[in-house]
């Protein structure tokens, strides 16, 4: 069985030329050859404008098919091109995960006059203003779609609040609609983090629950996607996704793997959420991302033997999707915490070459990002290939030093030539004596990344002395693997 590897196949600053779905399709074969088994594509539905990245959701039934918000296509292309990209990726052996954004709606078609109270932006449990009349963009009638696929339209009863009153045009306010409440089972940040942005969808409304389940079943049947990436789950009633995913799997007859974005570096919150949703999904390991980020900013003051402490991949490995960076951590974004360049290669070795978790590679790290003058991560393609072909078998850890750590994978019979040794350092470098096993006695290992030049010969006792230079990682493989590690784009 091949190791699973996901790629987030987009970033925040892509050009608005409508060619993205075609570009995805064009890369299908090369992604498969690289060792990518899953891709996470950006939100495909119509947003507030053509340049919307996909998180300013307007109409989830419009995948680039109707003339709405001044455009037929989305930033990425048309519905036909999206579905063709999915089919092409699947034909190449790459499964497709769709980005699902249910928390909010934006760009309403009409306003409504209603009453609301104001809650503190910093503590949503604290009401700071009495009942007042507000004019809100709460009617979503989708005139360009004219009822195709669904005749459901949205009004203020389907939302709990918003941050904009067309009458007062006051900024930095949160309006909670009269008779509504924030969901109690959400993240406790800011007292209650139900509200995030736009028109906040009321996940307690029976009409909303029915329509959302209907839409999701339509979406997976219409597009043929293989899995789901769930946006902003910490802002939505914890029980909502538990029931929605169970219903989708029942009604579709398919397993539909799902990974949620619960943005918190606190491991206890991630574990509590998994318990609440009864493990109906996996989660991105945000805690590990922050360990990488802090290590990259601390140079050799960070103790590398603690790098996996308080992370999902350590405590719930079967539910962890590991990553180094994503579109939200990029420079200029609200969750900016971009791992420093020097540490990226080390971080990717730690998610790609270990046995636990499913790693997710960020598009920008593999291809670079000219828009922000960001370089690609050196040797990332090789690391992905090594994972796909050689990182198998029993793992033995040597996470016992503040600055030089390592591990081995001893290979298995199913993958000829498998077996790797990894050593990395955030300081001056060093050597670790690690046990590959007596099956490798007398065999040479070479650094696939070409940093350490001298081969390591495994002794009769199965041990070898593997090295890494300062602030770098070395990945030791058998010499026959070298020819197989050429990355063709």
Q: What does this entry look like structurally?
A:
The chain is an alpha/beta fold and 489 residues long. It has three domains: 6-102 and 207-389, Glycosidases (TIM Barrel, Alpha-Beta Barrel); 105-202, Elongation Factor Tu (Ef-tu), domain 3; 395-485, Immunoglobulin-like. 23% of the residues lie in helices and 23% in strands. The protein is built from eleven helices and 24 strands. The protein has helices spanning 20-26, 28-34, 79-91, 206-223, 238-252, 267-276, 286-298, 312-315, 341-352, 363-367, 380-389; strands at residues 6-8, 38-40, 46-47, 57-59, 95-100, 104-105, 110-119, 127-139, 159-162, 174-177, 199-201, 227-230, 258-260, 282-284, 320-323, 358-362, 395-398, 404-409, 420-425, 429-435, 444-447, 456-457, 463-469, 472-477. The strands form five sheets. It has an eight-stranded parallel beta barrel. A six-stranded antiparallel sheet has the order 6-11-9-10-7-8, with no helix packed on it. Strands 17-18-19-24-21-22 form a six-stranded antiparallel sheet. The radius of gyration is 24 Å and the shape is elongated. It starts with 5 loop residues before the first strand and ends in a 12-residue tail after the last strand. The model has no long low-confidence stretch (mean pLDDT 96).
Q: Based on DSSP secondary structure assignment, what is the total number of beta strands?
A: 24
CATH class of the largest domain reads Alpha Beta
Radius of gyration: 24 Å
Measured between the Cα atoms of the first and last residue, the distance is: 25 Å
What's the overall average pLDDT, rounded?
96
SS content category = alpha/beta
- Content of β-strand: 15-25%
Largest sheet data: 8 strands, parallel, barrel
Low-confidence stretches: none
Number of separate structural domains: 3
Name the strands of the widest sheet in spatial order. 1-2-5-12-13-14-15-16
Task: Provide the CATH topology of the largest domain.
Answer: TIM Barrel
Q: Please, what is the CATH homologous superfamily of the largest domain?
A: Glycosidases
From the spread of the alpha carbons, the general shape counts as: elongated
Q: Could you say what the CATH architecture of the largest domain is?
A: Alpha-Beta Barrel
Residues in helices, as a percent range: 10-25%
Tally of helical runs? 11
